[in-house]
Amino acid sequence: MGSLSSKNALVTGSTSGIGLAIARAFAAEGANVTINGLGDDAAIEQERSGIEKDFGVKCRYSDANMMDGAAVSAMVHDAEAAFGSLDILVNNAGIQHVAPIEEFPDDKWEAIIRINLMAAFYAIKAAVPGMKARKWGRIINTASAHALVASPFKSAYVSAKHGIAGLTKTVALEVAQDGITVNAIAPGYVWTPLVEKQIPDTMKARGMTEEQVKHDVLLAAQPTKEFVTVEELAALTLFLCSDAARQITGTTLPMDGGWTAQ
């Protein structure tokens, strides 16, 4: 077993994409994992059982609604009860909507703030007491380059991600002497199935080739002109859980191909 063989982790928004890659990386290092998210029941069960089969750990699934603070808190407590502890919390669940501020739907604003920011608050609040009692914990929040810089038409998402950066700093200071680190990872554009599915429509709408869409649209802000991979993000998350990273806390770490250097 690996470096996390005595640990238990919870990753929200982990039935696909970034969250699933992080959950599998934890399992590969020996951690038991609770996954959470939306999707087809059969597909989720395939991922859950696949983690157990591939890595020889225990894997639970929670269908907790990230819009509901009480459900988020209950998910954390259930994960802790099922495995005996919750040592690692990754707040990864998120949604997006793009519109000018004067046209931004009220319900979309509220949903983005609830899922991208408030859910992290409720999860952290529920997880910290157990981590303090055990004098060890790792809390990692998936932020975004938009936690550090803004883009037009993303008022709710940018507000939520800036909020995640502030929440990360505040909690890190509160638990700094309790063996708990709190950090945020700020990816640029990440190559996921969700991004891949957007390409054909953009090609058609703009009369571009696939390569032009990737280079000139999706990666316009990323100087390397390369997507971040979910494996790279998972590797950074693993590092933040290691003893080597115990003095890294209260930070928002960009992994954005140089986007926020500009």
TrEMBL record:
One of its GO terms (molecular function) is 3-hydroxybutyrate dehydrogenase activity. Its EC number is 1.1.1.30. GO terms for biological process: monocarboxylic acid metabolic process. It is an enzyme of class 1 (oxidoreductase). InterPro entries: 3-OHbutyrate_DH, NAD(P)-bd_dom_sf, Sc_DH/Rdtase_CS, SDR, SDR_fam. The keyword Oxidoreductase applies. It holds the Pfam family adh_short_C2. Keywords: Oxidoreductase. It comes from the Bacteria. PANTHER family: 3-OXOACYL-(ACYL-CARRIER-PROTEIN) REDUCTASE, 3-OXOACYL-[ACYL-CARRIER-PROTEIN] REDUCTASE FABG. Belongs to the short-chain dehydrogenases/reductases (SDR) family. NCBIfam families: PHB_DH (TIGR01963), PRK12429.1 (NF009093). This is 3-hydroxybutyrate dehydrogenase. It comes from Mesorhizobium erdmanii.
